[in-house]
Amino acid sequence: MYTILILGSGGREHAFIHSLHKSPLCQKIFVAPGNGGTDDFAENVVLDIKNFESVAQFVLGNKVDIVVVGPEAPLVEGIVDYFRSEKLKHIKVVGPDAFAAQLEGSKAFAKKFMQKYNIPTAGYLEVSSGNIEEGYHFLDKLSPPYVLKADGLAAGKGVLILNELSEAKEELSLMLSGKFGDASSKVVIEEFLDGIEFSVFALTDGRNYALLPQAKDYKRIGEGDTGLNTGGMGAVSPVPFVTDELLDDVIKSIIDPTIQGIGLEKMSYKGFVFFGLILVKGKPYVIEYNCRMGDPETEVVLPRLDEDLLSLFLSLFDNSLETHICQEIPGYATTVMLVSGGYPGDYEKGKKISLSDHSEGTIFHAGTKKSEGLLKTEGGRVLAVTSLAPTMDQALKASIGTAEKIHFDGKYFRRDIGVDLKEK
After folding, report:
1. 10 Å Cβ neighbour count for 55?
2. Whole-model pTM over 0.90
3. Per-residue pLDDT tens digits for 294-342
4. Across the chain, what does the average pLDDT equal?
5. How far is CA 147 from CA 158, 190, 231, in A?
6. CA 110, CA 95: separation in Å to the nearest integer?
7. What is the chain's Cα-based Rg?
8. Which of 102, 266, 288, 376 could pair with 276 as two cysteines, CB 3.0-4.6 Å apart?
9. How far, in whole angstroms, is CA 401 from its chain's centroid?
10. Secondary structure (DSSP) of 229-292
11. Per-residue model confidence (pLDDT) at position 424
């Protein structure tokens, strides 16, 4: 029997808890810091997850066996490396070390990795203050729109897509001058790829991997994919246009060489690889790697995984992952994200949430807290409503039906998640 600590506070972490608590191998789950819904099957604990010493003290004091790292920042900052000390090395940590986490933490590192292992991606140039003129010349050769990416983690705000050359050059200068802090001390200029995006997920021990269900998420705040980018307004799994032939191409041209590259670079990697992909004229390209699961994708991927998630995690550490072929629950999963009024701009917190007792599907909490005996809003993205059904239409109808029964001031959600996929 295993005691687990999950680090994070969003819908992704709630989905982890929802899956892990079902395992017959699971004894107890802690989550730090958790949210207003994670205490259904876990114990919320107050911890600064970037303070690795505090995390380690809690792990040792509570006889935790496995640490599952939800968000990217602790991975990029080296929590896996910290747990290599003599007194902590018996703890199993799900995630890559800091060197491997650069696949997400540094756009330039990821691009060099893809170039080295012949993984299809957009053409690019890495620019710093020392070669800004070269950056201007590279932009001159491109056709609009122009893509500028801060090299480091910028809380999801470090990617600019611009239509005017003059604006792109001005923004390049501003980014290198600190627009996104240290994250944009280097900038990657990319060729724009025009296509449809989707995501594929793998769990790897650094040599072998098991594929999880694929998904497509929706980033824009407005219906019809309009308005500002968000952390994600909903997701669908599986992706109807991802045929067996396309998935085979993704495996051969992207996933296999990525995992082989991880091994050849001697990366310590026991966790998730998130492949953010785009389909351009029938060919898949990598837009980005993430070194953890996405949110809200986790809320549709895990509900479709017909596996003991805890056993899968354990297989990362006992060389048995290669024997796993993940089984999927047939049909579709859709999730619809309920957000606070004003999001992704300014929004108010502390709005009372009323949940219906007669709702379909599963409600994963993202930005909620319990205060004075009431459930209240605490973040921009508040709740993710996930439904499983034989068809995407049925699943989406169930998710929207439940979303309509949930009430808090300023509630907003998209009703068109997955609608574009009917035409693909």
Report:
1. 24
2. yes
3. 999 999 999 999 999 999 999 999 989 987 789 999 999 999 999 999 9
4. 95
5. 11, 5, 19
6. 17
7. 21
8. 288
9. 26
10. EEEEEEEEES-TT--HHHHHHHIIIIIHHHHHHHHHTT--EEEEEEEEEEEETTEEEEEEEESS
11. 45
End-to-end Cα spacing for the chain:
45
Q: How far is CA 348 from the centre of its chain?
A: 25
183 and 200 co-located in one domain:
no
Do 34 and 183 have their domain in common? no
* Paired tokens of 57: 């003290």
Name the token pair of 249: 């191409």
At which of 78, 95, 112 does a domain end?
95
Owning domain of residue 12: 2-95
Do 262 and 350 lie in a common domain?
yes
How far apart, in whole angstroms, are the C-alpha atoms of residue 333 and residue 246? 20
The alpha carbon of residue 334 and the mean position of all alpha carbons in its chain are separated, in whole angstroms, by 16
Q: What are phi and psi of 208, to 5 degrees?
A: -110, 170
Residue 103 is assigned to a structural domain of this protein: no
Q: Tell me which residues of the chain have a pLDDT lower than 50.
A: 424
Q: State how beta strands 187-190 and 146-150 pair.
A: antiparallel
Q: Could you tell me if 381 and 268 lie in one domain?
A: yes
pLDDT, residue 359, reads: 72
Q: Which tokens hold the place of 242?
A: 């991802």
SS3 call for 94: strand
